[in-house]
Here is the input.
Amino acid sequence: MTETIPDAAPDLDFDLKVLPKVSLHDHLDGGLRPATIIELAEAAGHTLPSTDPVALGEWFRESADSGSLVRYLETFDHTIAVMQTKEGLFRVAKEFVEDLADDGVVYGEVRWAPEQHLQKGLSLDEVVEAVQAGLEAGVDAVAETGRDIQVGQLITAMRHADRSQEIAELAVRHRNNGAVGFDIAGAEDGFLPSRFKDAFTYLAQHNFPATVHAGEAAGLESIQSALVDGRALRLGHGVRIAEDVTIEFEEDEGADADEVDDTIGMVTLGELASWVRDRGIALEICPSSNLQTGAIAGFGEGIESHPLDMLYQLGFNVTINTDNRLMSGVTLTDEFELLVETFDYDLDDLLELTLNAAEAAFLPLEEKEALVEYINEAYSDLG
Ligand SMILES: [Zn+2]
Here is the structure.
């Protein structure tokens, strides 16, 4: 007898690409097209591990998946190497927007660290302007195909470097020219946000919003510092906030121990987890990336042990993102599909996760409301 496996989610039996999406955590230097890297590298005289687009794409994914941090970081050497000229930055930014639009993204925030793009003599302001010009050209190119997308830059400072004040000033200087927020990235462990306190204070004094990578490679202390010293309005990943959530399962005598589920678990939130949940601090969760980098290793093996579902069920403000589309070999559509397969999410769940992201966007209220309305309408047309 042939067994037919029922479709886990029959109402999602269509290409999830058509769903309008909001992307809040996506690195510019982690989302290049392999073919573009090859062309730009040739022009720059930079040697790549492969000059075949398919093989190069695989090399990026394998290196990111290798479990070796050295190999993972090496991938960025190649993308950053081809983003040192105005032309390179423009092209990468333009294609980034086109690729987001092809994935159904209607609003995206693009994060990148200008200080990493000065190797050929460009200034911080010049690189921000080149990326902004590319983003705008991408928006125009998308509009020509009859679609709409809006994008903003998250100007990022590198944690291991010492330029955070300068970068914070750069971000504020470009607030009317595409910069919508600030972030710090790079080695989290050992580089607490408190090290960049002055920069964060400067941003706060200028009422300029920050999201902070925290709770990925380091735990609760890093999240606490992101919120207190960084005044983070969102957390980049933030997934390890789950370490401050305790669930005790009561043994129900007579019931099969294997059948105990979380409905009879006793949930306790620590003060930090309560703050993050109750204040609605958005968590920029990147499922595949979290698995690759070991951010969720403490919760078990495999994507099914990702605490995002537990956090979502408990009412945390969970948003879904890609982090580095090239290295992880994913799109936001892929991440949605992964959640549908792993956690049985339906259209209502995907809508809620998308609205969470829209409401956490670094946009003025009126624009946020328009975005929310657009998403709600698109979903109701599907339903
Ligand atoms: Zn990131």
User: Anything to note?
Assistant: Strands lie at 21-27, 105-112, 150-158, 179-185, 211-214, 234-237, 245-249, 265-269, 282-285, 318-320. Residues 16-382 form a domain with the TIM Barrel fold (CATH 3.20.20.140). The chain has 15 helices and ten strands.
